[in-house]
Design a protein that fits this description.
CATH topology: 434 Repressor (Amino-terminal Domain)
Strand content: under 5%
Largest sheet: none
Number of domains: 1
Order of helices and strands: HHHHHHH
Number of strands: 0
CATH superfamily: lambda repressor-like DNA-binding domains
Distance between the termini: 20 Å
CATH class: Mainly Alpha
Shape: elongated
Structural class: mainly alpha
Number of helices: 7
CATH architecture: Orthogonal Bundle
Radius of gyration: 16 Å
C-alpha cells in the first residue's frame, strides 16, 4: 500500500471523531482527560491538524486506549479508505480517461467522503 497524505488526514479525522463518539465524551471532556486543548481536538476532528507522536499518545490516553490500540484502529480505517480510493480511481479510469487515476491522485474521492 502506498502512502497518500490526503487519505492519511481523512482517516485520522475519522479515527478521532469515531473513537471519541464511541467513548461518549465531548471534546471538552477529552481535552481534560488528555491535556490537549479543545481547539486542537476540534482541528484534528476537522482534518486540519495531525498530532505529533507525543500528542497522539496523550490523545489515546484521553480516550482510554494505548497508543498501540489507537494505531491499530487508525491503520484499519486507513486501509479501508485506501481501498475505497482505489475502487474510485478504477471507476474513473473506466470512464475513458486512461490518466484519470494518475491526474486526480484521489483528491476528488477524498472530498466526496
Amino acid at each position: 500500500m502506498t502512502y497518500n497524505h490526503d487519505i492519511f488526514c481523512k482517516a485520522f479525522r475519522k479515527l478521532v471523531v469515531r473513537t471519541r463518539k464511541e467513548s461518549f465524551i465531548t471534546q471538552r471532556q477529552l481535552s481534560m482527560e488528555s491535556g490537549l486543548t479543545r481547539q486542537f481536538i476540534s482541528m484534528m476532528e476537522g482534518g486540519k491538524r495531525i498530532p505529533s507522536y507525543e500528542n497522539f499518545c496523550l490523545l489515546a490516553k484521553g480516550l482510554g486506549l494505548s497508543a498501540a490500540e489507537m494505531s491499530e484502529k487508525f491503520y484499519s480505517i486507513y486501509e479501508r479508505e485506501c481501498r475505497g480510493m482505489e475502487e474510485h480511481l478504477k471507476r474513473l479510469a473506466g470512464k475513458g480517461s486512461p490518466l484519470a487515476a494518475e491526474k486526480n491522485c484521489g483528491k476528488d474521492y477524498v472530498k466526496q467522503r
